[in-house]
Amino acid sequence: MRIHDADDVQYLLRKTGRVLNPNQRIVVMLYASSAQRPDGTVMIKATELAATAGMTPPVLSRTRKELVEAGWLEVTGSVGSVKHYRLSPAAFEDRGMAGRHLRAVGS
Question: How far apart are CA 18 and CA 103, in angstroms?
């Protein structure tokens, strides 16, 4: 899932409200709003993501781990010890074809 407009932001806020804690919601929004590969993978360094969100890298890492365990994020690969993540497509199945299309056209 990639944020393209206000409707996508509203969708994510509704989807994550009362389900995720504030840090988790911020990380989901961060991944959804970041540049993505065609498969949805975000290739930005964790330190950059943490700085953007106003978090320390350990807080981002812990929050990301929680989101993987909860099924919101998934590991898509790694280079050495560096893992790459994307929002889990299964978490957005309720968007139907529109949700799949948004993930496929990420820029």
Answer: 24
| H or E segment and range at residue 35 | none
Write the DSSP symbol of residue 8: H
Structure tokens at 74: 């998934």
DSSP H or E run through 30: helix 22-33
- Its pTM stands at 0.85
**Averaged pLDDT in 10-residue chunks for the chain of 107 residues:** 88 93 96 94 95 96 97 94 92 69 45
Amino acid occupying residue 19: V
8 A C-beta contact, residue 3 and residue 33 = yes
Q: Which of 70, 7, 10, 1 is nearest to 41 (CA)?
A: 1
